Amino acid sequence: MRFYDIFNGDADGICALHQLRLAEPQAGTLVTGVKRDIRLLERVPARAGDVLTVLDINLRDNLPALHAALERGARCLWFDHHAPGDIPRHPNFEARIETGSDVCTSLLVDRYLKGLHRAWAVVGAFGDNLVTAAQSAAVPLGLPASDVQRLRELGQAINYNAYGETEEDLHYPPAELYLALSRYQNPFEFVADEPIFEVLRGACADDMARAEEIAPHLVTPRCAAYIFPEEAWARRVNGEFANRLAREHPLRSHAVLVKAAGGYRVSVRAPLEHPAGADALCGRFETGGGRAGAGGINQLPEADLDRFLRQFAQAF
Ligand SMILES: [Mn+2]
């Protein structure tokens, strides 16, 4: 029997796994990648008796690999908050999936663990830009505002690290970042003892400064779209940049397009005040998807740029 921990490389995925393994230690093979690497299950050579724990990746995109693993006799526990499609029923499969705009995987794991490692759930929720949900989850911890702010900055820093085309774009491979984190019960000790937080914060500020020099491609009172060049800093910072725009203009929807071979990678944020419709818009494009408040298109062909911008401007 072998254990596999299969998780999104962003803050929510990492903090979800970290909470779970603090509570239920288990030395498994780590399977993760950049935030956009979501077809992770097909990398797992599951056999009878293996235990697969999956966190913060979409079930729909991994369904064939899940069926194959279950057929071979593996067991699977799945936590996630992305629209799953039809959830299979199988005696070896347990799904803890909820898609509300105020839940994330770290908060689902927190509920499963009855708040045991709540501070890390708060970090994960802030990483997914669920500011209100993160703040309410933090209330029972009774922390001073400056400590809650620290958890927020940590979530943003870890989340920033997950964006890139490949792990080469990232400052830390997500598995390495998880392992560094996994030695700490307490996020404040991680922040104080590891250089990682400061490295990521500084790098994010540098990338963000470059992003701020780019004028919007399209801007109205209700939406704004940015087009970034084909450079590593742009691939790293587009997610945090989109999250920041969403917070600063809560009534506006946002799209950040990063130039890539033959087209664009697209991140969409629905208005924070009405977090709905991002998945529907992105789902109209072949490689698009996501959740209500935030979605993306992996590869928008150059020829579809105008169609996307038109539909984006009308969608929210
Ligand atoms: Mn998430």
What gross morphology would you assign? Answer: globular
User: Whole-number average pLDDT?
Assistant: 96
> How many separate helices?
12
What is the helix content? 40-55%
Distance between the termini: 48 Å
The description of the largest β-sheet is: 6 strands, mixed
Structural class: alpha/beta
Beta strand %: 15-25%
**Uncertain parts:** none
Say how many strands there are: 11
Strand arrangement, major sheet: 6-7-8-9-11-10
Provide the list of bound ligands, each named once: manganese (II) ion
Order of helices and strands: EHEEHEEHHHHHHHEEHEEHEEH
* Integer tally of domains: 2
Radius of gyration: 19 Å
Layout of SSEs?
Blueprint: E1 3-7, H1 11-23, E2 29-31, E3 51-55, H2 63-71, E4 75-80, E5 93-97, H3 105-112, H4 118-127, H5 131-138, H6 145-161, H7 174-181, H8 187-193, H9 196-212, E6 218-219, E7 223-228, H10 232-248, E8 253-260, E9 263-269, H11 278-283, E10 288-290, E11 294-301, H12 305-315
Parallel strand pairs: 1-2, 1-3, 3-4, 4-5, 7-8
Antiparallel strand pairs: 6-7, 8-9, 9-11, 10-11
Helix pairs in contact: 1-3, 1-4, 1-7, 3-4, 4-5, 4-6, 6-9, 6-10, 9-10
Bound molecules: manganese (II) ion.
